[in-house]
Design brief:
Length: about 700
């Protein structure tokens, strides 16, 4: 092979070195070297890359396939990253991504319009005239068909030709040509993901949660559309990431897209063409929405918009524009400067048909700001706000601020607004009743962990600030006035009962000594000693869980039951021949971790295999005293004599004291438990009172 032929092959095909072959086949570099040395059919090098011999990707993948070697076909990914590495640092990331996507568009046009010969001329180092001729041919074909699908891409490439930047894309035509047509859309998305960073977020992206949930809402709503030729509208389309998700699942829609950014227009137009070719149904307009309506006669069934945030329309904008129905000021002959979000909000409402829905992302200040109270008041009164959905932070990759989705309708005039809080963490299961086009996407987005309520428009309008913030209206169960009243009644009853017990003259805490002086250390027995002397019996639980989820039946004592209390237990019925059953007065405790012990007063229960029962014999022990001692610090796992982290139950110790002393300890412990219960009730009541001060309380 001559040097000229090698250069031509290297120019047109993807080259990979031995390291990349090893990564591709998931083997070591030495294994690749062995393949080269031992196989007569292994491809010959066609150039160099990174100082190493370079091989043609297609020849290598063919050899691997023919020799039954498993490998990852990452041809497209390698081509994209090779392009990204070539242009990184030489031009802005936006420009680099736009040029590659524009080249992909031209590549697709060759197939769609029968321009393969002209395209091949460009691949074979076409000159400036060849590029002019090629884009002119695309323009002529589309104008004759009256279906402009490439006009912004053509204008963009022409600008590169006029500025003599054509050489910067000429060197990368071969990379684009090497990408298979079925993968061309994936290549476009891959280069965008590879090159764009947070600075390009206004163009959109594939990964932001906001775009995902808005697209899901749009798709769910689109399923309800009965119109034969519905239209999707996005006046701030960016790279058309939401529009594309809707188009893939709803081919009946036509798409009216606009953006003020010329690169956005190129990206949006190219992505639709790469995905659908001449079947694309979008119209893209480069437009300043505040100064001009991009589609004056449009009435759409569906609109999804993420407007530019924090920008202001100057006061010299056309205040007589028929779209500006809602004056954000308090009146006057001339409207002051207003935010870009207000303009997009009103534009969406104007373009909705009577059965349509719009989903627009706005900053939370739009639901609460007093400067916008008049706007909210008029919109609520007109019934154009169907729902407000508050989202958590980090829904867009360029900002951590939270966002709200406003769901707008036009013509239905609902008398209630759905206020949905997805920003506050909750374990409450959402109640039913939301429209399906809201509930289905939100259940997938937030795993069903959100709160909502429908609030009457009259109730919202009666509020001084006309707040639409979901967290103002949607309260957790413990913050609803009726629940607050109910909780306070129960807590007050518990406190009074606890105080009555403390005030009782027989309360052992009233007769405490001044100190515990002159008490001698007691003699102790281990459980092993008590069992060996037949003064006690240790029974190990042997009931197994049932079912795939390892669930215990309701009559089985488990460590969880010991921690939470035994009141929920039922009596054991059908018991296996070898299963152990507790008797009244048995002290049950768990043998793993810190010890929890309790007295099974009634008996008749089975025990899981991690629970033991201590059955004392004779009248020398009070069961409650034994349970207290088993939970004492000296019987816990974290002791100096318990290096391994788990104590043997037979090594646990019980002090030998009189029944009178045992009884005294049990009484003191019961009094302490009552105080603990009173303290918890008092703390709960303080929280409830605080909530009542903030949210009010009323009888149910």
């Amino acid at each position: 092979m001559s040097n000229g032929e090698q250069c031509r092959l290297a120019h047109r095909n993807l080259l990979i070195n031995t390291t990349e072959i090893a990564q591709m086949a998931n083997v070591s570099v030495s294994t690749v070297s062995n393949w080269k040395r031992r196989s007569d059919t292994f491809p010959e090098p066609v150039g160099t890359k990174d100082g190493k011999p370079a091989f043609d990707y297609d020849q290598v993948s063919g050899w691997l396939r023919d020799n039954n070697k498993e490998f990852h076909d990452n041809r497209m990914r390698s081509l994209v990253w090779e392009y990204a590495n070539r242009v990184r640092g030489k031009m802005d990331a936006i420009e680099g991504g736009a040029r590659f996507v524009a080249l992909l568009h031209l590549r697709k046009a060759a197939s769609e319009y029968g321009l393969e010969v002209q395209w091949q001329t460009l691949v074979d180092d076409g000159d400036k005239e060849s590029w002019v001729s090629y884009v002119d041919a695309i323009e002529t074909i589309e104008r004759e068909a009256k279906h402009l699908l490439s006009n912004y891409v053509v204008d963009y490439v022409r600008s590169l030709i006029k500025s003599d930047d054509i050489e910067t894309i000429q060197g990368n035509v071969s990379l684009v040509d090497a990408i298979d047509l079925p993968n061309i859309m994936d290549a476009a998305d891959m280069v965008i993901d590879a090159m764009w960073d947070n600075r390009q977020a206004y163009l959109g992206d594939n990964g932001s949660p906001l775009y995902h949930v808005m697209a899901e809402m749009a798709n769910t709503w689109a399923k309800t559309c009965s119109e034969p030729n519905p239209t999707f509208y996005d006046p701030a389309c960016g790279g058309a990431f939401v529009a594309m998700r809707v188009a893939l699942r709803n081919p009946q829609y036509r798409f009216a897209l606009a953006d003020i950014n010329s690169v956005a227009a190129v990206i949006a137009q190219a992505r639709f063409f790469l995905q659908f070719g001449t079947d694309a149904t979008e119209t893209v307009v480069l437009n300043d929405l505040i100064r001009k309506d991009p589609f004056p006669d449009l009435k759409c069934n569906l609109s999804v918009v993420t407007p530019p945030m924090g920008l202001s329309a100057s006061s010299d904008a056309d205040v007589t524009d028929h779209r500006w129905k809602y004056d954000v000021s308090n009146g006057g002959s001339r409207q002051r400067a207003f935010s870009s979000e207000v303009a997009f909000l009103q534009d969406c409402i104007f373009h909705l048909d009577k059965e349509g829905r719009a989903f627009i992302a706005l900053r939370p200040s739009f639901t609460t700001s007093r400067l916008l109270a008049n706007l909210r008041r008029r919109m609520v009164a007109d019934g154009v706000i169907e729902a407000i959905i508050s989202l958590p932070r980090r829904q867009l990759r360029d900002t951590s601020i939270p966002l709200d989705i406003w769901v707008l309708s036009h013509g239905t005039k609902p008398n209630r607004v759905y206020l949905i809080d997805c920003a506050s963490a909750t374990e409450e299961a959402p109640q039913g009743g939301l429209p399906v086009y809201l509930s289905e996407p939100l259940n997938g987005y937030a795993d069903g962990k959100y709160r909502w309520m429908d609030v009457a428009c009259a109730e919202i309008l009666a509020e001084d600030n006309v707040s639409l913030a979901p967290d103002k209206w949607v309260k957790p169960e413990g913050m609803k006035p009726k629940n607050i009243c109910l909780e306070s009644t129960e807590e007050i009853s518990e406190i009074r009962q606890g105080l009555g017990q403390i005030d009782d003259e027989s309360n052992p805490l009233r007769d405490l000594p001044s100190s515990l002086a002159n008490m001698k250390e007691s003699r102790v027995f281990t459980l092993r000693e008590l069992v060996d002397s037949n003064e006690a019996e240790l029974i190990r639980g042997n009931t197994q869980s049932v079912g795939r989820d390892a669930v215990y039946q309701e009559d089985v004592i488990t460590p969880q039951i010991l921690s939470e209390g035994m009141a929920s237990l039922t009596k054991s019925g059908n018991v296996g021949k070898r299963e152990h059953i507790t008797e009244p007065g048995d002290i049950v405790f768990r043998k793993l971790g810190s010890t929890h012990a309790a007295v099974d007063v009634e008996g008749g229960h089975r025990m899981s295999h991690t629970v033991l029962a201590l059955r004392m014999k004779g009248d020398n022990w009070i069961p409650d005293f034994v349970a207290i001692c088993l939970q004492a610090a000296w019987n816990q796992k974290d002791t100096p004599r318990n290096i391994a982290g788990q104590i043997d139950p037979l090594d646990m110790e019980l002090p030998v004291v009189s029944l009178e002393m045992q009884r005294k300890l049990v009484e003191i412990q019961r009094a302490a438990d009552e105080l603990k219960h009173l303290s918890a009730a008092a703390a709960g009541y303080a929280t409830t009172l605080c909530n009542a001060i903030r949210f009010g309380a009323e009888e149910g």
